[in-house]
Amino acid sequence: MWRVLILCILTLVVHQVNADELKVKSDSPKRYVVVKGDTLWDISSKFLSTPWHWPELWSMNKQISDPHWIYPGDVLNLIMVDGKPRIVIERSKPALKMTRHGRKSRKVNPIPTIPLSDVMQHLTEHQIVTLGEYDNLPVLVGSERDTVFYKQTDIVFVNKKLVTGAKYGIYSRGRIFSSPKTNQTLGLELNLIAKGEATQSADISQLRLDDIKSQVKTGAVIMPLPADDLPAYFLPEAVSSDVASEIIGSAKIYRESGLNDVVVIDGGSEQGIKQGHVFSVFQPGKIQFVDSEGEVRDPINFRSYDRIKAYFVDEETQKLPNVYRGKIMVFRSFSNLSYALIIDIKRPVRLGDELINP
Q: Do the Cβ atoms of 43 and 76 come closer than 8 Å?
């Protein structure tokens, strides 16, 4: 009995090890020259079937202690050492420039993990809060000028104490997201419409508007600005197999999204979802009925009569297989919601698509 149990455990361990091994693609290049516009994800996808494992592939090489320090013109060579893949790098001769401190630095920036330009807005210009948090935020209640809309350099009044000299964001109310399964409110999206600096702190504080992006008027809420130091790179990893999610929104407010589009997913830090988590996206398999005569009917196309009849007629229910759509990576996570970027796509990603371990 013990021998059987030990054998089963060893089998599971070996299976897990194999599942976690780096998988080099059969058509992987042996040599690749980095070009402007590349991302670490793009390059890893050329070499690996499981590109979220790129830190393992590159961390084996002491030449790449920081994987994001790879520049256009560098040459990456794929080799095998003791049966394991690794990448060695041939550095290109850097084009240097003088900084204002008299130091030399590269003229080009290292390539990022993902295209930062596609997520920049959602790193800096959007916030997610609970409805309770929203109700307690400071509110813009007026200004020194008698006007409906405020302009650059206006001094506006805020109904709570602020930190004098601190930078704040002025936000308009955006979309409310709810869980499709439980109907529970997950969060409220706030959109940045202006920036300002607190010039006086009191029960009614004063704030100078420095950067206006869209119309600012009474009723907007105030929050401290998030740190503007963007991450140099995102460290991708497969999400745990016991974490599942669903796409509940898109940045462009379209039903379908494509490569490098941003989507909103159900779940955040409280559900164990964090920055860098990679999910596979699947369209849920359709449910259909097969009657006694073999006729297949899709419930979506049921008439009212069909829906009633389905309760009384003995029919076999069939669920078609889920359909793979692509992969996403979380780049910003809140309590119960997250923003994610579509990093691989086979078919358009839609609202309601399911997210599971890749």
A: yes
Q: Rg of the chain's alpha carbons, rounded to an integer?
A: 26
For 45-110, what is the HEC assignment? HHHECCHHHHHHHHHCCCCCCCCCCCCCCCEEEEEEECCEEEEEEECCCCCEEECCCCCEEECCCC
∠ CA 24-27-32 to the nearest 5 degrees?
85
Give the list of residues 6+ apart from residue 97 with CB closer than 8 angstroms, or none: 104, 105, 106, 107
User: What's the burial of 77, exposed, middle or buried (CB within 10 Å: 0-12/13-18/19+)?
Assistant: middle
pTM of the model: 0.78
Question: Bigger pLDDT: 96 or 160?
Answer: 160
CA 267 to chain centre: 12
* Mean of pLDDT values over 247-266: 90
Kindly write down the DSSP assignment for every residue of 226-258, as one continuous string.
PP----S----EEPPTT--EEEEEETT--SEE-
Confidence class of residue 304 from pLDDT cuts 50, 70 and 90? Answer: low
pLDDT of residue 202: 96
**What are the residues whose beta carbons fall under 8 Å from the beta carbon of 84, sequence distance 6 or more?**
22, 60
Nearest Cα residue to 143 out of 165, 166, 159? 159
Determine which helix (DSSP H) or strand (DSSP E) holds 175, and give its type and residue range.
strand 167-178
- What is the token pair recorded at 21? 């091994």
Output the CA torsion 331→335→337→338 (10° steps): 0
Tokens for 288? 């259909």
Q: Which of 93, 76, 66 is nearest to 33 (CA)?
A: 76
Cα distance between residue 8 and residue 239, in whole Å? 25
- Rounded Cα gap, residues 169 and 173, in angstroms: 13
Give the integer Cα–Cα distance in Å for 257 and 336: 22
11-23 pLDDT tens trace: 333 333 344 567 8
Return the structure tokens found at 33. 């020259």
What type of residue sits at position 269?
Answer: S
